[in-house]
Amino acid sequence: MGMYGSLRRVTLADAERLRTDQRVLEWFLFGEPPIVVEDRLPGVLGFLLRFTPIKVQRSEPAPPSDNPLWPPAGPGEQVDLDKAWHGLHFLLTGTDDGGTEPANYLTEGGEYLGDDDDVQARLLRPDQVRALAAYLATLDGDELTRRFDPERMTKLGIYPDVIWKRPEETDAPRGFLLDAFSDLREFVGGVARDGDAIVVCIS
Questions:
Q1: Is the dihedral of CA 146, 152, 156, 158 positive or negative?
Q2: What is the fold of 5-31+68-202?
């Protein structure tokens, strides 16, 4: 499935709900959880399974809730970085892991939320959002193109490392990151102007 990155704005008042209720945080990050239903397999196998404790289950999208714990993100409330988050981190910091604030805020910094080991969710305060916005505003496509180094990115294991050195697609990976950077800079700048916080999620 892969690892995906996203940023979503949140007010400081609403952030308190995310700190104190894991279910609310999950709805905020992923929307309404799917429902799990039992599947009955056809044929002999399905018949035999009835005599064992083994259950075959599958997930189905839940019907829209009349009273969601958190509404879906509206226009301008979220930016999806897809699998570009680690490549962007490299372009912003020059590292695979670490770097200095605020350049490293896609993977580090802020307040960790939740207790799911498979999901990294961090809250960036409004002052951190402003610092990140100011840093992103100093960069442009030419500078990021200069920092783009497919050989080093592959060597460092920048995720997804299989795409950076494909000779038949020289421009596609770089364009993928530059488009994601443009979306990131616009989103963070808007949140900074409004004085809100941001939840960064890598999952």
A1: positive
A2: Hypothetical protein yfbM fold (3.40.1760)
